[in-house]
Amino acid sequence: MKKTLVAIAALAVVGAASAQSSVTLYGRIDASLASQRTTNTGFVAGVTTDVGAQIRSGAHTGSRWGLKGSEDLGGGLKAIFTLEQGFNIDNGTPSSTREFHRQAFVGLSGGFGSLTVGRQYDPIDNMYGAHDAFGYSGYGAMNYVFNSNCAVLGLPAGSQGPGDCIGRQDNSVFYTTPNMGGFSAGVMWAPGENKTAATSAGKMWGLQAGYANGPINIGGTWQTNKLNGGATAVKNWELGGSYDFSVAKAFLQFEGSKIGGALDAKDTGYQIGAVIPLGAPSVMVSYARENQKAGGTKYAEASGLSLMVQYPLSKRTYVYAAYLNGEIDPTAAGAATQKQRNYGLGLVHNF
Fold first, then answer.
1. DSSP 180
2. What is the pLDDT of residues 95-150, one digit of tens each?
3. What are residue 102's phi and psi, to 5 degrees?
4. Which of the following CATH numbers is that of domain 30-350: 3.40.50.300, 3.30.470.20, 2.60.120.10, 2.40.160.10?
5. Which of 168, 251, 332, 335 is most buried, taking the most CB atoms under 10 A from its CB?
């Protein structure tokens, strides 16, 4: 009888411990039949790149898998973590040489809000997604336009530049307040950890604040990134919001960026869009435009128009048809205008 009672008590303790902590495996798979045609035209001979039909992974929203969990520490305090890795569903390869390049952080949450440490989305990226009809996804006009000058300026891959070319911050500490009647805020700090005797370390600061209640969602952010060894910092800001009219949800945002030093570049842009439910399917439309300057002189205008139709097959699975019409128009005589036309027909499954 004693052995039975001990076994029952042990099972109860294990059950209680299990109830206080959890680990969830989750993910998203985006596979599509897609094409991308890029044309450069101008006073010089035009050059067109058309790779034809492709089976693409994450053309709309990145394919990924991850683990996230929490442990109840008592008194309303929890330990939390997220580990997330991207992959290519078309050939089964990881989308980065890093193990968990999309997100990798651990922290605490409670009545005070949350404090997390690791590789995380920065404030600009958070607000870009919150105030975009496409959620800052692959076929979105905002995604194409606001990040177009990363390539135009010849910035190295993964560097911070006008338009927040990086999106996620390594070595970051992120504090977010609790929701206070719809109001919330956050601050991020990330040391570069790359200082040498000859090179100053990079660093990043960012602030975000917003109000979300009922049909209203508004907010803004500001952040500054100093490149490793850079004499000046890259500064980005964004202000935007959305309003749900029931028949349609409207989005509007404005942004600006500036980088000093030899590049001496800056941009200002805006995006307007809507999500329109039509029974089961929904239609998303977005238009974005940006003026880009270097050395005090305007060198290009970028614009984009996006259209997408989504049809849910279940709560976790939907099909989509998407179109992006993007264009970058340099102002210099003889410079080539770049036109991009993207098409996609895909399936997204969440698990």
1. B
2. 999 999 999 999 999 999 999 999 999 999 999 999 999 999 999 999 999 988 76
3. -75, -50
4. 2.40.160.10
5. 251
